[in-house]
User: Which sequence fits this backbone?
């Protein structure tokens, strides 16, 4: 029998490593969460709002990728669990504001909606 991984019991870095590489059950906030390989149908994003590009980032010619580990819940809620890649000049913060406004169809496991963990990316180009 495997032991569930409890998100609140490990550091964010260890949590991400465990989430992405382990096959043990994952529990976040008392809820069973599935990886993409564990569901019948993966979550499908239907609306992804674009974050604002800050004036400071424009002036400093900042560009690149912001990446989060995100929970798409069975009930339709988006929760950012950790930040994998950051950008300076307010771009990470703008992506953090946009992420919770994402709309999606929940993942399915044998026809039932379940929560899924995903890697979410926002690309900032000049």
Assistant:
């Amino acid at each position: 029998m495997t032991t569930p991984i409890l998100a609140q019991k490990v550091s964010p870095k260890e949590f991400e490593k465990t989430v992405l590489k382990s096959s043990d059950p994952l529990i976040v906030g008392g809820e069973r969460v599935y990886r993409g390989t564990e569901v019948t149908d993966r979550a499908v994003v239907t609306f992804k709002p674009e974050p604002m590009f800050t004036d400071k980032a424009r002036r400093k010619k900042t560009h690149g990728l912001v990446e989060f580990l995100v929970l798409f819940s069975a009930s339709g809620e988006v929760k950012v669990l950790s930040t994998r890649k950051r950008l300076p000049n307010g771009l990470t913060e703008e992506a953090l504001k946009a992420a919770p406004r994402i709309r999606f169809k929940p993942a399915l496991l044998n026809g039932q909606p379940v929560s899924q963990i995903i890697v979410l990316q926002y690309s900032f180009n000049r």
Remarks:
- The helical segments are 12-21, 55-59, 91-98.
- Strands lie at 5-6, 26-28, 31-34, 44-47, 64-72, 78-85, 103-105, 107-109, 112-124.
